[in-house]
Amino acid sequence: MKDINWSTLGFHYTEPDYIVRAAYHDGAWQEPYATRDKYLHLHVSATCLQYGQEAFEGLKAFRGIDGKIRIFRWRENARRMARSAEGLFMQPVPEELFGRAIRLALEKNLDFVPPYGTGSTLYFRPLLIGTTPRLGVGPGRDFEFVVIPSPIGPYYPGKFHCTSFIVNRYVDRAAPLGTGQFKVGGNYAASFRATEAAHAMGLDCLFLDSKYHRYIDECSAANFIGIKRSKVESRKSKDVIEYLTPKSSAILPSITNDSLMTLARERGYKVTRRRIQLEELAEMSEAAACGTACVISPIDRVLDPERNRTYTFGSEPGPVLSELYRALRDIQFGRAEDKHGWTEIMSQ
Ligand code: PLP
Ligand code: COI
Questions:
Q1: Angle in degrees, 0-180, between the axes of helices 74-87 and 255-266, rounded to the nearest 10
Q2: What is this structure's pTM?
Q3: How many angstroms does the Cα of residue 256 sit away from the middle of ligand 1?
């Protein structure tokens, strides 16, 4: 095991021993191979540089309580990357090749899988870029698939604590029929003006829909979840608990959100995916950002300075989101039965 202070890792790059690469040339994918070289020899006119032909993914390997290493739902990441590739007119990486590349990246970097109990994990960043030199506007026909592993700690520092958000109305991250549903670098570059301004205030950014600036879209690198409680006449003592998450063509279909929706349904919560007006935050008892990197990151307040409004959710993570967080982490770290077959044990 590497000499790394696993418990204090943040969401930062730590250089692994190996990355994995596979190229697509002459209409065929070559087999993935591991290399210590972290640099690509890229033509200056490659379509990824000229026209933004780039898509990426994010997934994690967890060392469980039993010492086994589990990868969480990698097939979903492979499928989403294939959709992103099609969205940018790139050659999709075949699912099984994606799996072999992740497995190889893990095998070659086993010493970088953080020990159980530290809260840290091995993150994989798969990347797909267009490499054909082109000046005329159009897609390339050569591609490079790369898997970059890195051990990481929490995305938001502190273990399971609250983060504050600010509503953004002056930068549109992704258009309704644009690339928001794909995981492509351009979406993130387009959000930097807003997110960096928010970070400078110690906040993160909540993006509204780009057409009306009225509905919640998502956070800069995570989906949004809200919890509503309501009394029902016929069920005197019990509240109905509703898990609400935005439906929008401009947001990334989050694999974490999908998993949490399943866990929420299993617990008898009502799960609703629909357009959510910003003002509905006032009716929510809990709110959070969710994603691979941030897991569930509870929100304590959302500031809307332009409307002179602040929505508050309490300074501690609420009971519903805490329960879902525990349930998801228990599966990922092998503490609970994986009824859904979400984890794949890749190595002992
Ligand atoms: N939305 C955006 C914009 C993201 O960058 C991410 C992170 O991957 C997510 C949502 C969450 O997706 P997932 O849960 O699949 O990681
Ligand atoms: C993830 O959650 O895996 C992400 O990719 C989000 C962000 C760090 C880009």
A1: 130
A2: 0.96
A3: 8
235-246 and 270-274 strand pairing: parallel
For the chain, what is the radius of gyration of the CA atoms? 21
Label the pairing between strands 270-274 and 204-208. Answer: unpaired
Residue type, 32: P
For the CA of 220, the nearest atom of ligand 1: 3
Pocket test for ligand 1, best of 191, 252, 262, 290 (most atoms within 8 A of CB): 252
Q: pLDDT averaged over consecutive 10-residue blocks of the chain (348 residues)?
A: 88 95 98 98 98 98 97 98 98 98 97 94 98 97 98 73 91 96 97 97 96 95 96 74 98 98 98 98 97 94 97 93 96 97 85
Which pLDDT score, from 0 to 100, does residue 236 have?
A: 64
Q: Is 185 in the pocket of ligand 1 (CB under 6 A)?
A: no
The tokens for 82 are: 């294939």
- Domains defined for the chain, CATH in brackets: 6-152 (3.30.470.10), 163-332 (3.20.10.10)
Rounded Cα gap, residues 317 and 296, in angstroms? 10
